[in-house]
Amino acid sequence: MFRNYLKIAWRNLVKNKLSTLINVLGLSIGISACMVILVFTKYESDFDSYHQRSDDIYRVVQHTEYPEETLYWNTTAYPLAEALRNDFPEIDIVTQTAGPASREFSVKNEQGEVTLYEEPYVLFADGYYLETFDAEWLAGDRNTALDNYGSVVLTEYLAKKYFGNDISNYGSVLGKTIMLNSKDPLVVSGVVKNPPGNANQRYNMLVPYEFFKENNPFFTSNWSGNYQGTTFVVLKNEKLKEKLESAIAGWKKKYLKPEDDRRISYFLQPLKEIHTETLYGSIPGGYTMPAGVLRTASLVALFILIIAIVNFVNLITAQSTSRSKEVGIRKVLGGSRFNLIFQFVLENIILISLTLGLSVLMSYFLINELNGFLSIINLKLHFGWEQIGLVLLIGGLTVLLAAIYPALVLSSFKPIPALKNMVVFKKTNGLTLRKSLIVFQFVIVQLFVIASIVVATQMNYFRNQEIGFSSDAVVTTSAPEFNKLEVYRNALLQDKDILKVSFGSGPPMGVNGYSLGTSFRTPEQTVEEGKSAEMKIGDINYLDFYDLELIAGRNFISNKNRFDEFIVNEKLLKAYNWTPQEAIGKRLAINEGEATIVGVVKDFNNHSLQYEITPCIILNWNAYQNNAFIKIADGSSRTLASVEKTWNGIFKNSVYNYEFLDDSMEKEYLVERLIFNGFTILSILAISIGCLGLLGLMSFITLRKTKEIGIRKVLGAGLLDNVTFFSKEFIFLVAIAFIIAVPLVYYAMNMWLQGFSYKVELSLWMFLSGGVITLMIALLSCSFQSVKASLADPVKSLRTE
Amino acid sequence: MLLELNNIFKWVNSGNRRIFLLKDINIQVEEGEFISIMGPSGSGKTTLLNVIGMLDNFDEGEYNFLEEPIQSLKEKHRINLYKKYIGFVFQAYHLMDELTVYENIEMPLLFKKYSSSERKALVGDMLDRFNIVGKKDLFPTQLSGGQQQLVGIARALISSPKLILADEPTGNLNSKQGEEIMELFKQLNEEGVTIIQVTHSEKNAAYGSRTINLLDGRMIKD
Question: How is it placed in the membrane, per its record (chain A) (predicted)?
Fold first, then answer.
């Protein structure tokens, strides 16, 4: 009996190839998309949760109040950790880190050949760090690995990179030496497994904090500065947090200068909130993912799953009504209701199993693709049994909904009307439900489509916005040795394809998270009245190189070891209501010293376009000119090779790196690009699921209306009449969906755009084109079936009844 | 006595009017009879057949099948009863298109407790008897109308029913095929199976031993 059921089930699925395909494909696309989004959001919300004490760990964050704004720092002054450790015995552990930062290493192999490496993720950490954060130790002792001044802990990845891929026993790496900056030997004291991708502080190497302290005595003893130091504390329980915060508020005056004590306050941020809180920004090598985005993503996942399941149930129910004859025969031949339910459920279980299998494969594939695609944010998504279990659970739910409901309906048919295909459905009810499901689907489809259009427009705006300086064909390289800058410049300019060269702290727009902050005031004002500004160091060619327009005063005449001239932007003048001419000759004090304003430049975008232009001061300082800007005539590999050759000839002890300025600037829009890609993919998904659903539903409706079409044709209706007859209703439904979707998407996109200082206006065309695109696609998938039905021979269609 | 209908009424309400489908039907059927039900379209022939076959309910009256009062039986019990004693043959054959000839004939057995070897033997016998062994792996759409109806009858007979209910069994067939089917019914009747058929044709009715004439739901002559 069971075999008979299986046989019938299988033959039915094969017989209705198209609808089987639509069902399986639609649902598996939905489930896989949902899976991938869930895996992604889980990954993103589980940052650093793998540490045993992750619930007890807090990062110390700093709020600095200025008259007009508050600055939020995820870093604190270096001496903070030690002071906390000494003065607050109730804190379990206090640990201090510096970085992650980039350093150069040389490793000598057994043949005595030295290879130079640049390692961007070097984290300086004290021994307490290893107590606070867990790692899987492959070699070495967690308790002592960072205790010695000259030791280093490598990740598996670096151990292999430095000492060969074929290491089987990591113990053999212990005791080997690598050279930092070609002068300081570090002895390997441990090897840990590569930390998971969802760790906030990314590192490939741990170097003792003592080492950093020894080499940076000024920074590490300075309470006023805020550099790259992060302090973590481990508390016994949550209640201690607020007590400690208020204790610190009263305690900090012991170390901070009075004016700093008034401005600065410290708070404890739970480790698990670091990744999803954007207030404090991201740390080098990391990124933050707003909790709102994760919530939206989960909601979207849920939506997609609902559309897919709704579609599936809709189609299965629709198709099952065409099987009333079968129900009739079985009942007449003595089949009980249970037999019939069993039959239909079994059939759908087969269908759903196929779907689930396909979903698991698809999700696996998609996740691998995504990992590669998003390698820029170090994504290491993992697809395991947990996820497969979730797929099965979703599948089970679908079985309940999609298999049992139609089975119950079908098996309740009375045999005689069923045989005559005269089963009366509660027409109005079923139809409104089905219609509202279609409307629901198309609301979501149009949400995604319109959102993609808005995001694309905004991205396009970013690309084409006038930024106030020229960034074309600019290559940046590092310039590690200050005394060789002129040699480097002259060597570069030997090449006729290299047009201009300039040195400075960074390009006009801050990229790669690198910018120098300071505060400014007139010498008459008090320190408290200072306002924050961005500081740039440029040589005398800087203005000309970037086409920055001087609107008053003059360029620098020369760079000095002790800077004495400022060029400022218009924005800064607003603080004092100076005209450009008035500003010339005025004195300004910044944290680093005092100088005279000699020039005013037109405002340029010194931050990426999400943000406003801020006051900016350019200094004629010899310090910090650690980047070279090279304008080339063409991007040919020959020119780039020539730059590399020149660089290697001059800076022998460092590793060559270059980047096109346009690429670096593009990276500032990484999150926006991710959102755009996400929406594009989701739109395509939603459209394909929605259209598969329409296609399936249409094929069912046309089947039921074969006779009606036959009669219409006999009475003289043409192809177009028939197609319109079918499409009319769907156009109406899509239109209703459009009306519902517009206010929702308007609200959401308006909110999203609020986050940008430079943004496009939402306009009617974005919404209309979204609606038209959806309508066209919906019509296309409808007409496929209705044209087929309309072309059928009316004599034949009338005879089938 | 195989079955007995006493004062059977069946109606539907349309608005505030009551339309009678069956009116005061009284029939006694002995085992081994071959009865034809005749009457114009809409006279209630098929309805009567469905009531006898327990596929349809009635609103008033008594129906005893093998001494069991059908009106007071539970649905499950009723299904068991017709599963065991009644076979149906339809004008439109009502074979399952997804199943082969063999599987179609086998189906009623699946709803009863037969082992697979018993089923094999029974279906084999039936295929032999109707000379359709060579067609057992074909699907219904690959057969002619007459052959399909043969399969329909074989399926009705597979569980050795006491009573065969046939609703215009030759209605979709040409006259030669129709004759063959009627001959088959006659032969079955001689073997002891009770047959009740609904028919339009006097010729087919002549195969039966008795004719019941219906007009507007009422018996006009017995």
Answer: Multi-pass membrane protein
Domain boundaries, chain A: 2-41+290-461+670-799, 57-273, 474-667
Residue B151 lies in a domain: yes
Is-contact A164 A185, C-beta < 8 A?
Answer: no
- Restricting to B residues 162-191, those with a Cβ less than 8 Å away from any Cβ of A are none
pLDDT at A431: 56
At A513 the pLDDT is 67
What CA–CA distance (Å, rounded) separates B16 from A784? Answer: 47
pLDDT in tens, A351-387: 888 888 888 888 888 888 888 776 666 677 777 777 7
Residue B44 lies in a domain: yes
Q: Choose among A734, A749, A693: nearest CA to A448.
A: A749
A12 touches chain B (CB under 8 A): yes
Secondary structure tally for chain A: helices H, strands E: 27, 22
Is B82 a domain residue?
yes
* Cα distance between residue A194 and residue A36, in whole Å: 23
Cα(first)–Cα(last) distance of chain A, in Å? Answer: 32
Q: Which of B55, B96, B98 has its CB closest to that of A415?
A: B55
Find the CB nearest A332 among B55, B98, B110: B55
Tell me whether A11 touches chain B (CB under 8 Å): yes
Contacts of B82 in chain A (CB under 8 A): 334
The total number of structural domains in chain B stands at 1
The pLDDT, as a whole number, for residue B135 is: 93
Q: Is the pTM of this model over 0.80?
A: no
Domain span including residue B195: 32-57+72-221
* Cβ <8 Å between B108 and A339: no
Contact present, A437 and A375 (Cβ < 8 Å):
no
Mutate to test the interface with A, among B97, B98, B106 (most CBs of A within 10 A): B98
> Hey, which residues does A488 pair with through a beta bridge?
none
Tens digits of residue pLDDT in A256-278:
988 889 889 999 999 999 998 88
Tell whether the model's pLDDT for residue A598 goes beyond 70: yes
Q: Which of A390-399, B104-113, B155-164, B210-219 has the lowest average pLDDT?
A: A390-399
B24 touching chain A per CB within 8 A:
no
Q: Which of A333, A422, A801 is the best residue to mutate to test the B interface, defined by the most B CB atoms within 10 Å of its own CB?
A: A333
Q: Cβ separation of A4 and B106 shorter than 8 Å? A: yes
User: Reduced to 3 states, what is the DSSP secondary structure of residue A161?
Assistant: helix
Q: Does B12 touch chain A (CB under 8 A)?
A: no
Is B121 domain-assigned?
yes
Q: ipTM greater than 0.85, yes or no? A: no
Percent share of chain A, pLDDT over 90:
31
Give per-residue pLDDT as tens, A667-710. 888 777 777 787 788 778 877 887 777 777 777 777 777 777 77
Is the pLDDT reported for residue A254 higher than 50? yes
Whether cis (ω within 30° of 0) applies to the bond prior to A284 is no
| Dihedral over alpha carbons B120, B124, B127, B129 (to 10 degrees) | -140
| Cβ burial, residue A784 (10 Å; 0-12/13-18/19+) | middle
Mutation for testing the A interface, residue in B21, B107, B118 having most A CBs under 10 Å: B107
Given an 8 Å threshold on Cβ–Cβ distance, is A334 in contact with B111? yes
pLDDT in tens, A558-587: 888 889 999 999 999 998 999 999 999 999
The yes-or-no verdict on residue A427 having pLDDT over 60 is: no
- Name, in order, each residue with C-beta under 8 angstroms of A171's C-beta and a sequence gap of 6 or more: A139
Cα maximum dimension of chain B: 57
Q: What residues of B are in contact with residue A339 (Cβ under 8 Å)?
A: 111
- Nearest-Cα distance to chain B for A324, in Å, is 12
Question: Does A800 have pLDDT greater than 60?
Answer: no
Residue A334 has its nearest CB partner, among B50, B79, B94, at: B79
